[in-house]
TrEMBL record:
Domain 6-phosphogluconate dehydrogenase C-terminal: 180-468
InterPro entries hit by this protein: 6-PGluconate_DH-like_C_sf, 6PGD_dom2, 6PGDH_C, 6PGDH_Gnd/GntZ, 6PGDH_NADP-bd, 6PGdom_BS, NAD(P)-bd_dom_sf, Pgluconate_DH
Coiled coil segments of this chain: none
Function: Catalyzes the oxidative decarboxylation of 6-phosphogluconate to ribulose 5-phosphate and CO(2), with concomitant reduction of NADP to NADPH.
SUPFAM superfamilies from the UniProt entry: 6-phosphogluconate dehydrogenase C-terminal domain-like (SSF48179), NAD(P)-binding Rossmann-fold domains (SSF51735)
Catalytic activity, as annotated: 6-phospho-D-gluconate + NADP(+) = D-ribulose 5-phosphate + CO2 + NADPH
Superkingdom of the source species: Bacteria
Organism: Kaistia soli DSM 19436
Class of this enzyme: oxidoreductase
MF term (GO), any: phosphogluconate dehydrogenase (decarboxylating) activity
Protein's recorded name: 6-phosphogluconate dehydrogenase, decarboxylating
EC number: 1.1.1.44
Length: 478
């Protein structure tokens, strides 16, 4: 009798194929299927000896080859393909089978699919997966959302497939509905901010100080030894060090147009819906949009040429100042991202455990970093409610970095180098630490043109001034 597979993987492009190999290497029987069978053949021909694979050329055979209740990871392009695949699967499934969408789906789509499949007595898990091609194979960070009992069925498999840090799997139950994909979306938003901050530091070293890529690589490699230690800082050094077949740094020949698949934009859109000042991530999304206007940028540069920047090698103190600016801005980006998780949890009725989320982001995923241990500690100590900036470790780090942060933003502004993520993070910090800001005037203006009313510091209630009439003030509510 043929042994049934423990899990199925449908969609065998880079992520699906590597997740299937990961599961097989961990000893699970893995059923595999791809719409175009060539990918299935390639996987089996190249890696079939790595474990117990059951390849199929039809969905019916694929489903039939998995032990019930069947856990099936679908790893296809986000959007309509996910709905198409779900519809193709449904006629072949039995009550209690579990479809696990491991792609980067929009969380509202996952909410919809969760309820749709629940009505059909099928179970649905929206599972964020981070780590790219290598992580999928070696151990990603996984963020599964759905019912707790559906998660219990897949837990022994996914916790074994996930990256492990200090003996703990980088996978935990996130919550119901689309919460797993929401958390992955915010992860990606933070990834956008992290990368934007790195490129701003690179731009300063290159454009203001005239450093070549290998010298900048050395700086990032050095930073990776300290508190900035992270996967993205590590690979920045590797990318900057790479030379092409002409012997020149590859990075100097890469087109300066950032692409995006949507998760950063969704994070910013969600922040607007939830009313969260998610400035660092949103600026990172806008910076990608501006970078994509390459032809327009060339034309505008011709009309508004830059003056020459007097380039000179940076002193050790100037390098440290950029490091401080990057670190403080990073703290702000994470504080904003974690606030978004907190507010979403309240808004959508999800019990997101921020300590556990920071724990599973410590390994496997793109934003893995030493820094996440600090966030985990803040939540573990029970003092993690509210803004992360107020936690002692982060507050001390920002206070220590503040003078350098201002200097670096000032230098960039003076030299005409855009640093939107450094600057907006600093503006957020400055805005947040002012008990009294200038919105009193704004309220006055709103009341003037639209009778929108305002509150007063000296008495309770809401008021309107008859600005263009007799100038008198009326109380509009208590
Ligand atoms: N690449 C990465 O680093 C990461 C990707 N992700 C997410 O994981 C998912 C998979 O990513 P990736 O591996 O890069 O692959 P792609 O996003 O490039 O998707 C390709 C896969 O989708 C399948 N597909 C597309 N349309 C359909 C359809 N209508 N019906 C059935 N199958 C379809 C393709 O099948 P066929 O071969 O037949 O065309 C192929 O298997 C995506 O949601 C992505 O956003 C998540 C983390 C990291
Ligand atoms: O999910 C990921 C990592 O966590 C992907 O790499 C992500 O799709 C990259 O996003 P973009 O193409 O928008 O930069």
């Amino acid at each position: 009798m043929v042994e049934l597979a423990d899990i199925g993987v449908l969609g065998l492009a880079v992520m699906g194929a590597n997740l299937a190999r990961n599961a097989a290497r961990k000893g699970f029987g893995v059923a595999v299927y791809n719409r175009h069978g060539g990918r299935t053949d390639d996987l089996i021909n190249e890696f079939g000896s790595e474990g117990r694979f059951t390849p199929s050329k039809t969905i019916a055979d694929f489903v039939a080859s998995i032990a019930r209740p069947r856990p099936i990871i679908i790893m296809v392009k986000a959007g309509k393909p996910v709905d198409d695949v779900i519809e193709e699967l449904i006629p072949h499934l039995d009550e209690g089978d579990i479809i696990i969408d491991g792609g980067n789906s929009l969380f509202t789509d996952t909410n919809r699919r969760f309820h749709y499949l629940t009505e059909k007595k099928l179970r649905f898990i929206g599972m964020g997966v981070s780590g790219g091609e290598e992580g999928a194979l070696e151990g990603p960070s996984m963020m599964p959302g759905g019912t707790r009992e559906a998660y219990a069925r897949i837990e022994p498999i996914v916790t074994k497939m996930a990256a492990q840090v200090d003996g703990e799997p980088c996978c935990t139950y996130i919550g119901t509905e689309g919460s797993g994909h929401f958390v992955k979306m915010v992860h990606n938003g933070i990834e956008y901010a992290d990368m934007q901050l790195i490129t701003e530091a690179y731009d300063l070293f290159k454009t203001v100080y005239g450093l070549e890529a290998p010298a900048i690589a050395d700086i990032f490699a050095d930073w990776n030894e300290g508190e900035l230690n992270s996967y993205l800082i590590e690979i920045t050094a590797a990318v900057l060090r790479k030379v092409d077949d002409t012997g020149k740094p590859l990075v100097d020949s890469i087109v300066d147009e950032a692409e995006q698949k949507g998760t950063g934009r969704w994070t910013a859109q969600s922040a607007l819906d939830l009313g969260i000042p998610l400035t660092s991530i949103t600026e990172a999304v806008f910076a990608r949009a501006l970078s994509a206007r390459r032809t327009e940028r060339a034309a505008v540069e011709a009309r508004f040429p830059h003056g020459d920047v007097a380039k000179r090698a940076p002193s050790a103190a100037e390098i440290d100042a950029i490091k401080d600016a990057l670190y403080a801005s990073k703290i702000v980006a994470y504080a904003q991202g974690f606030e978004q998780l907190q507010v979403a949890a309240q808004q959508y009725g999800w019990e997101l455990k921020l300590g556990e989320i920071s724990t599973i982001w410590r390994g496997g995923c793109i934003i893995r970093a030493r820094f996440l241990n600090r966030i985990r500690e803040a939540y573990a100590s029970g003092t993690g409610g509210g803004n992360l900036l107020l936690q002692d470790y982060f507050a001390d780090a920002v206070i220590k970095a503040e003078a350098s942060w201002r200097k670096v933003v000032g230098l960039a502004v003076a030299e005409g180098i855009p640093v939107p993520a450094f600057a907006s993070s600093l503006a957020y910090y400055d805005g947040l630490r002012r008990a009294r800001g200038p919105a009193n005037l704004l309220q006055g203006l709103r009341d003037y043109f639209g009778a929108h009313t305002y509150g007063r510091l000296d008495k309770p209630g809401k008021f309107h001034t008859r600005w263009s009439q007799d100038g008198s003030e009326v109380k509009t509510s208590d």
